[in-house]
Amino acid sequence: MVADRYEIRSQLGRGGMGLVLLAHDHELGRDVALKALRRELMSNPDSIARFEREIKLAHRFRHPGIVNLYEVHNWNGTLFYTMEYVDGRTLRCWLTEEKRADLKTAVDILCRVCDVLDYAHKSTIHRDLSPDNIMVLPDGSVRVLDFGLAKLDDRFAGLTVAGSNLGKLSYMAPEQELNAARVDRRADLYSLGIIFYELLAGHTPKLGEKLTRLRSDLPRETKAFMRRALARKPDERFFSAREFREALIHLQARQQARRKGVFPFCADLFKRGGAFLKRLIRLGA
Predict the structure, then answer these.
(1) pTM: predicted TM-score of the whole model, two decimal places
(2) Are residues 74 and 111 in the same domain?
(3) Staple partner for 47: which of 41, 56, 167, 249, CB 3.0–4.6 Å?
């Protein structure tokens, strides 16, 4: 029992700063996710300040794609907060089981992530987007997790120093590797482009590899989409999450138009060819 109220059930995850546990809140009769700052960091003022910043940011958000924060506690020298418990799979687990997605599934998932980012980018930048912190629920909805590395223009901004290595390297925008403190929302969109590639290919991009060569079922516009999504210069990328979302929807529409245009034609061709063959057989008889 924690704070004479929360019964710990299992561990959900562990990061560099905190431990996330599944707990049952006996006072309110519900399951919650409990995130605690690691005990060895409780004597580190910067770690405490980062954790407080994460709490402040969680309080600021009110969006169905971001988990709700419930309460903050400091119990027996342990700083922790409780939040909405979401029963779903991370996109990483989803990829491990499904291997890769079709275009419609990838677009459906990432359009929902774009909705979250469009909302969050009004006040912050995530800076750590990856399949590990996107959760897919059984109903198809998503939750974006771990805004702990988010960039805020407030009194905590000094915690992020130029050149600091925040985020996962495989998903990190080039400019973030140089100066994590000065990136803008286009860094998140670069990460989203990597995730889109991974959903369709089953792995992150490899040097010289083309997604359209791996997936011949994709519309030819995919090449231009990926070139813009993964542009090394921020000015050459999508400008906003909303624009990224619109481009995703356009890709899916192009694939649907391609199928409607080609497959009926092929079916009609086979039908005509079959009738012609039957006629030849009758004439031969």
Answers:
(1) 0.80
(2) no
(3) 41
